[in-house]
Specification:
By secondary structure, the protein is of the alpha+beta class. It is built from two helices and five strands; from the N terminus they run αβββαββ. It binds guanosine-5'-monophosphate (5GP).
Length: 114
């Protein structure tokens, strides 16, 4: 099966503005930001979407949220606030089939999201 864009970023075949990297995760800026801060946090292990993550990976899911928290702190939006979004499947508008958390902030976000 061919690699997704995000797997190519993990393998450094495509460049990205990386904010944070751990053994299991990578966080980098979205190339089409919907807010002044728009970062994608992804596991290095491939899962097409949240629905494909088995319960044994609960620790990895926890790491994803904590990495988003760490990114928010690193880019200075910890106190102003931020939103995390996971698009799962077609109706949610998922375009890259590799689990990712959007971290959005740096401005007042509409509520509820579209
Ligand atoms: P989705 O719609 O699947 O939840 O989000 C995929 C996100 O990946 C989109 O916000 C899109 O802008 C971003 N994206 C697509 N291709 C690239 C790329 O090559 N590099 C980076 N950094 N982001 C990308």
């Amino acid at each position: 099966m061919s690699k997704t864009i995000f797997e190519k970023i993990i393998d450094r075949e495509i460049s990205a503005d990386i904010i944070l990297e751990t053994e299991n995760l990578l966080a980098f800026r979205d190339t089409h930001p919907e807010a002044p801060v728009h970062i994608l946090v992804i596991p290095k292990k491939h899962f097409p979407r949240l629905a494909a993550v088995p319960t044994e990976e609960s620790e990895l899911l926890g790491q994803l949220l904590l990495a988003a928290q760490a990114c928010a702190k690193k880019v200075g939006i910890e106190s102003t606030g931020y939103r995390l979004v996971i698009n799962n499947g077609a109706d949610a508008g998922e375009t890259v089939p590799h689990l990712h958390v959007h971290l959005l902030g740096g401005r007042k976000l509409e509520c509820p999201p579209g």
